[in-house]
Amino acid sequence: MPVPAWIEHAVWWQVFPLGFVGAEPEGRPGLAPVHRLGQLHPWLDYAVELGASGLALGPVCSASTHGYDTVDHFRIDPRLGDEADFDALIAAARARGLRVLLDGVFNHVGRDFPAFARVLHEGPQAPKASWFKLSWPRGRTPGTEPDYHCFEGHRQLVTLNHDEPQVADYVARVMEHWLERGADGWRLDAAYAVPRRFWAEVLGRVRAAHPDAYVVGEVIHGDYAGIVAETGMDAVTQYELWKAVWSALNDRNLHELAHALERHNGFLDAFVPLTFVGNHDVTRIASQLKDERHLPHALAVLFTCGGTPSIYAGDEQAFRGVKEHRAGGDDAIRPAFPASPVDLAPEGRPVFRLHQALIGLRRRHPRLHRARAKKIHLANEQAVFGFGTGEGRLLLALNLADSAADLPAPDARAVEAGEAELRAGGSAAARLTLPAHGWAILSV
Question: For the chain, how far is it from start to end, CA to CA, in angstroms?
């Protein structure tokens, strides 16, 4: 099945809804819907102004706490509202030309998921006990809890049994339900933890009914290209490049970035990864970087290299936030947003404008979606990379040093973004001067 053509022009603005709207940290059984999804409506024009073409939503289905402990995949979390609120958000996004990507949590469910709750109450005779990987102790008494597979040691996240055909039927129905309701695609949470054959079966069914849907899997490390080929996903998350960007900038070791871009070239031969410098699971890029002067460098890499870029809401305003590995450790990176964009602090405006400029540049050069990187000059603190081939090719020049740098810029004609002095432009002998901690993107 070919990748949907519309993804070639996609730039996602990613929102974590429960945090964004300031929802309670825990849901309650029987909670009447609190209509908070509408709080996203004033931000849709902001996303368009930024240059985004799609809204990538975190979990919106009914869950017990953070959204990844699902209780009901067919119901909007009451802390966000109800199905009418979802329909209204889809309509408002559509009116602005924004696609909508949903977060599919299909590796595991919460302990309050009704089928698992019945297992705890009724034991191995529960109707859907086969949906889970259970181990019952000998000589159990009523109320004895089985051992069960869970996600990475989190007992509140009960792993589904992906060898059970009913689970595949269920996941396919869920995906189709929300696609029919107006979603344009799915991010598959913890996709790396699910057998590839399961995804191949489920996605084959879903695509038969929704061939234009986009599906990206959350994969942190491993055989990216193999996972895409064997599952039928369109893409996976490019965590290798994410790590290399901030690590190379922090260590002033652009050899690490060059190595990651070379591997990225190989991925682009097989598929187009989802690229990012921040998301809802990691320390914000403005906090991750040791030197704030290098934030533009990270963004310049994101918007010139091949991929489908995703911007985590708030990063375009240089929000700070550090992820901590403890209970509540995600709170700082998933904050509530103000009622409307006009309430944002003015300090973030320059970074917002930089995002706009770089997204605009990418729009002018749509072939960047699949553009490979070519190393032109490389040292620890300076690098020049070429992106793309033929007409529309760009050069990206980076300087991490405390002094200005003179660098080769063969055939560069003009500075498209950043700050540089170009000499002998348009010739093979062209060179540029970057200021200390400077960067530039040049057209060739």
Answer: 35
